[in-house]
UniProtKB/TrEMBL annotation:
The keyword Transmembrane applies. This is DUF485 domain-containing protein. It comes from Amycolatopsis cynarae. It comes from the Bacteria. Keywords: Membrane, Transmembrane, Transmembrane helix. The chain crosses the membrane at residues 17-39, 51-72. The lineage of its organism: Bacteria, Bacillati, Actinomycetota, Actinomycetes, Pseudonocardiales.
């Protein structure tokens, strides 16, 4: 007797999307702060690096990767059969 393939459906909740949303918001804020509101004195304190801008860009790249991962590889949950079968 061959076993039937297990049916699945997409999960309703994926923590990867929550992580992507949070890092995206922080990345956007840091990128804007680094690009528009960082002065020369603050850059000099950070050894000549606009750390807000680079950290924001890094977080936005991470956000894009997490979102892509969640879309391309969604979590699949097995479908339960009714007890009458």
């Amino acid at each position: 007797m061959a076993s039937e393939p297990t049916r699945t459906h997409r999960a309703g909740f994926d923590i990867r999307l929550i992580v992507a949303l949070l890092t995206g918001v922080y990345g956007l804020v840091l990128t804007i702060m680094g690009a528009a509101f960082t002065g020369e004195a603050q850059i000099a304190k950070a050894a000549g690096v606009n750390i807000n801008l680079w950290a924001g860009i890094g977080l936005l790249i991470f956000t894009a990767l997490m979102g892509l991962w969640a879309v391309l590889r969604p979590i699949r949950v097995p479908v339960e059969r009714p007890s009458g079968e």
